[in-house]
Design goal:
Blueprint (H helix, E strand, L loop, with lengths): L7 E6 L3 E10 L5 E10 L7 E6 L4 H11 L1
Antiparallel strand pairs: 1-4, 2-3
Length: 70
């Protein structure tokens, strides 16, 4: 249950589709070297799940930091 006296942020789940696959490159000396390549996409018709999470910083600290960066 959400406590009305606390501040919350939002954590999204199922927002992106992440795919990893190996990529082959020449590794010198006639050999091959493999590394992972990652692509991130937002699926069409996206419907993510928003979950409230407790805020890490008080709102007053965030406001002061934003004001200082202007």
């Amino acid at each position: 249950m959400i406590d009305q006296d606390r501040e919350y942020g939002i954590r999204w789940h199922n927002r992106y589709k992440i795919m990893e696959y190996p990529v082959s490159e020449s590794g010198g000396n006639g050999g091959r070297r493999y590394r992972k390549h990652t692509t991130t996409t937002m699926p069409p018709g996206y419907e993510g799940v928003a979950i409230p999470v407790p805020a890490y910083l008080p709102r007053s600290v965030v406001k002061r930091a934003r004001a200082a960066s202007l």
